[in-house]
Amino acid sequence: MDVVGRIISQGELLSRNAESDIYLSRYLGRDVIVKKRVRKPYRDPALDTRLRILRTYREANILYQSYKNGIPVPRLYFANLKLTAIVYSFIQGITLSSYLLENPPDNSIPYLREMGRVIGRLHSIEVVHGDPHPANFIISEDRLFVIDFGLAFISSSIKDQVYDLDVVYRSLYSLIPRYANSYFDAFLNGYQETYYNSDEAIKLHSKVARMGRYHERG
Amino acid sequence: MIVLGIESTAHTFGVGIIDDRLNILSDVRIRYNPPKGMGMEPFQTAEYHSRYAVDVVKRALEESGLSVGALDAVAYSRGPGLGPCLRIGATIARALALKHNIPLYPVHHAIGHIELVRSMFNLSNPLVVLVSGGHTTITAFRDGRWRSYGETLDITVGNLLDVFAREAGLDFPGGPVIERLASKGVRYIELPYNIKGSNFQFSGLLTRAVQLLNEGRYSIEDLSYSLQETAFSIIVEAAERALASLKDDIDSIAVTGGVASNNTLHNKLVEMAGLHGLRVYRLEKKWNSDNGIQIAIVGLRMLEHGIQGVKPEEAYILQRWRFDEVDIPWM
Ligand SMILES: Nc1ncnc2c1ncn2[C@@H]1O[C@H](COP(=O)(O)OP(=O)(O)OP(=O)(O)O)[C@@H](O)[C@H]1O
Ligand SMILES: Nc1ncnc2c1ncn2[C@@H]1O[C@H](COP(=O)(O)OP(=O)(O)OP(=O)(O)O)[C@@H](O)[C@H]1O
Ligand SMILES: [Mg+2]
After folding, report:
1. H helix or E strand, kind and range, residue A68
2. Are residues A217 and B81, on separate chains, in Cβ contact within 8 Å?
3. What's the structural domain count of chain B?
4. Mean of the per-residue pLDDT values of chain B
């Protein structure tokens, strides 16, 4: 058995998620996470295999690029495309989404600003996250880590970056409708601190913010 | 309590009558089918509806065996939809309410689809997959409204199927024709799969599918199969992501709207739901596509809840109107 297979077999299943099984295991004396993308019975096998391999590859590649650039992401140890699994460091903490649900705005705002800084730094290195929902951020000893790069891709297009902003806005809106606007403003403040082209992205976002909100019938 | 509902957002003009025990007393509809190879043209569609509208109302009353005097309220589809069609429904509803002095309720068409499936199965906290010509949205009820947990950012799945079918010279509506062809497909052809966070897009998929169609390298059966596989997998994946983000609050999955009649989509949802120990609820085919009962049932909820109707002179329409802007006080 190869090393990833061994790490999986020595680990314990932590959770089953929308697209993956998450195991907690050990590697070189450290706690590691194994994220294994599992087959979905509802998809055509050819399509299913293609998606799992592509996303595993992208996630590994972008985790590595981000880590190298000093962005707070888990450290990648292994990727195995055959098993569609990656091994990376365990981040001890709670997700930003549960934090936001349990804390008043005064406590939450600093983390939203930090979330904006993190996304701004990703955009600076031409990474679009693809799913920057608060559940994909982990608060650990006052640092904010970003995870789940399965839908991420490399792009310097403002339009793609605007999608990230839109996902943030919509996810805040569905998580905590009451504070969505002020939380999004805090996010944008942080975003402006770290991304040189943020003004253009923000401008385009407010223009297309209604994108998908109204459909013409055809 | 007895409510008459008028549906008139697009291709269908329908009148339905329902009572407060959810007995369907009548359901009459006509449907405009555009000439082969053409899309739906708003004025032609409205012209068709206007010719039969009064007759449809009469037939619905006849079928129920009731006189207009027996009605406690009238509901009409305020939107979203084609302006000229919406105006016909609104005008007739206004006239009925005025003449018989009963409350007049404006209804959001999509809320009608959702409320109908929810009520008929008595679901308490469903994740609703609304798939039609006008909508493609994953929604759940939170804080007084149906909120979107994933939706198309460009065209709807009904649009995708209908436009592809039109390009292929197939009949309108395209959905059922493509379903039949797809069942004979054997090979998955790679097509764009666009998920953006919890939302998704179909226009890249449509463009590529039409391009491959015109290249003529693949059979229409394989293309139909691959188109359905891709689009439906996207929807089911989005639904699964929505479930994950809503955690354990959801106790069932409902699917509605015209495309809900598709068995491939239904089976995929059932498989996904099975992974999470949930059941999928779907109404009989005719209740998935547009009808007057879906409007009547929302009117009934409003009446039961003591909501004031609108004044006839305020019975306007809204061509564009999001369902998550509508307050739902009766749930
Ligand atoms: N490095 C990590 N350290 C600690 N926990 C982690 C780590 N990676 C993932 N997790 C946990 O596993 C969960 C799922 O991870 P991830 O979002 O990457 O998977 P997913 O299959 O994309 O899930 P979903 O589709 O629900 O977003 C996270 O929400 C988090 O709780
Ligand atoms: N078996 C089927 N498979 C796939 N699609 C189908 C099937 N039957 C009907 N449809 C599609 O359903 C759509 C029509 O649905 P419906 O009547 O609910 O929608 P609409 O009025 O266009 O939109 P909305 O209800 O959102 O206003 C069409 O796009 C049609 O192709
Ligand atoms: Mg995730």
Report:
1. helix A45-68
2. yes
3. 2
4. 96
